């Protein structure tokens, strides 16, 4: 059997259009393809590979748990899940954790819990969910409807009801939408897929205050921002605004699929036995790997290092831009960064991704106008500098 990009077109549903490059091995922040060509990884599996590729702590956790027990279902609990949940609650506002397999599932659980809480406590009328344009919360029908990008939610028939949107960082528009029928507000504490857009402090504080005034739950989608990505364990900690429910995934497993919903004991009690569940959620393999990832990232030196690497990334990107004048802004926080293309390259961010691959660099986009970088949180300085040298060659090839 010849395993190449053509085989994808033969056997895979065409909802993706992947690169012709097929990576087969990774170590740290470097990856090699089938032909042995080396790439520096500034994509990080879309903010998932928080410790790079094949980090010894994760490999060891997987090997050790793989020789003990893989799967039980939630008829039984397991030690890795309990240890991980305890560590997550000890280090956040939350008292309780629900484990799923992905960010979409964690967000689905958060939204279902919010609706159930509102109906139990306030009645059937309290069902409105507010979220924000350009937001992204997953691909289930509920989460894609709550997400603020019609391109992802249109074309599948009738959507779940009582979901409304307004612009991010527009507190007046939000104030006009929220009322006593609102059960929840879902937002990213730094918009990822929508273009790496940070919240204004007055906006995020205002949203929290208005949620309190109207007895609505504030849900932070920290699927992309959580587990060290912004230089805090969770981004809400850097904003000084605490949500009622938080979702986590991506970096939580360091590359192994896992999601989690965190909340308070008072809210959690509304998911009684039988109201929600997951066959694989909280399985021992995923939780053992996630525990190792969580322990490694939840370290003062690692988190401080993220902020240092942010400064280096921004400095090098600004140096490139000073030479070639292709970006209007470098934005983001920690190692969730976006380079916004200027009017000369409007709508052409993907060209930078393609040109980077040709130079041996893996990067991302966030929409048509933003080149996105989400590398390993522990990427060495030498790899940052070499990756940026390759990115500069890619930029030079486009101007």
UniProtKB/TrEMBL annotation:
Its EC number is 2.6.1.11. Binds 1 pyridoxal phosphate per subunit. It comes from the Bacteria. CDD domains: OAT_like. Homodimer. The keyword Electron transport does not apply. N(2)-acetyl-L-ornithine binds at residues 139, 278. It comes from Pseudoalteromonas ruthenica. Belongs to the class-III pyridoxal-phosphate-dependent aminotransferase family. ArgD subfamily. Pathway: Amino-acid biosynthesis; L-arginine biosynthesis; N(2)-acetyl-L-ornithine from L-glutamate: step 4/4. The gene is argD. It is an enzyme of class 2 (transferase). This is Acetylornithine aminotransferase. The keyword Ribosomal protein does not apply. It catalyses: N(2)-acetyl-L-ornithine + 2-oxoglutarate = N-acetyl-L-glutamate 5-semialdehyde + L-glutamate. Pyridoxal 5'-phosphate binds at residues 103-104, 136, 221-224, 279. Keywords: Amino-acid biosynthesis, Aminotransferase, Arginine biosynthesis, Cytoplasm, Pyridoxal phosphate, Transferase. Pfam families: Aminotran_3. InterPro entries: Ac/SucOrn_transaminase_bac, AcOrn/SuccOrn_fam, Aminotrans_3, Aminotrans_3_PPA_site, Class-III_PLP-dep_AT, PyrdxlP-dep_Trfase, PyrdxlP-dep_Trfase_major, PyrdxlP-dep_Trfase_small. GO terms for biological process: L-arginine biosynthetic process. The modification N6-(pyridoxal phosphate)lysine is found at residue 250.
């Amino acid at each position: 059997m010849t395993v190449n990009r053509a085989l994808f077109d033969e056997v895979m549903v065409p909802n993706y259009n992947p690169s012709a490059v097929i990576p087969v091995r990774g170590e740290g922040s470097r990856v090699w393809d089938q032909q042995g060509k080396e790439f520096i990884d500034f994509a990080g599996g879309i903010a998932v590979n928080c410790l790079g590729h094949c980090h010894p702590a994760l490999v060891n956790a997987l090997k050790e748990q793989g020789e003990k027990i893989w799967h039980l279902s939630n008829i039984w609990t397991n030690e890795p899940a309990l240890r991980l949940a305890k560590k997550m609650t000890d280090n956040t506002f939350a008292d309780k954790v629900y484990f799923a397999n992905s960010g979409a599932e964690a967000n689905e659980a958060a939204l279902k819990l919010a609706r159930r809480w509102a109906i139990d406590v306030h009645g059937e009328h309290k069902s409105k969910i507010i979220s924000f344009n350009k937001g992204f919360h997953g691909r289930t029908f509920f989460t894609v409807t709550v997400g603020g990008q019609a391109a992802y939610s249109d074309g599948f028939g009738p959507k779940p009801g009582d979901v409304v949107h307004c612009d991010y960082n527009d507190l007046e528009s939000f104030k006009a939408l929220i009322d006593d029928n609102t059960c929840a507000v879902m937002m990213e504490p730094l918009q990822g897929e929508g273009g790496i857009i940070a919240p204004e402090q007055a906006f995020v504080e205002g949203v929290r205050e208005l949620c309190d005034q109207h007895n609505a739950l504030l849900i932070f989608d920290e699927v992309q921002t959580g587990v060290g990505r912004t230089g805090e364990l969770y981004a809400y900690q850097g904003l000084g605004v605490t949500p009622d429910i938080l979702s986590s995934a991506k970096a939580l497993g360091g590359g192994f699929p896992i999601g989690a919903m965190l909340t308070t004991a008072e809210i959690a009690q509304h998911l009684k036995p039988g109201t929600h569940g997951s066959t694989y959620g909280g399985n021992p393999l995923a939780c053992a790997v996630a525990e190792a990832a969580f322990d490694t990232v939840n370290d003062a030196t690692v988190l401080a290092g993220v902020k240092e690497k942010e400064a280096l990334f921004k400095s090098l990107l600004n140096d490139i831009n000073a030479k070639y004048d292709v970006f209007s802004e470098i934005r983001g926080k920690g190692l969730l960064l976006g380079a916004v293309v200027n009017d000369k390259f409007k709508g052409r961010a993907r060209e930078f991704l393609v040109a980077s691959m040709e130079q041996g660099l893996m990067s991302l986009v966030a929409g048509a106008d933003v080149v996105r970088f989400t590398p390993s949180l522990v990427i060495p300085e030498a790899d940052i500098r070499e990756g940026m040298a390759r990115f500069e060659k890619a930029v030079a090839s486009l101007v």
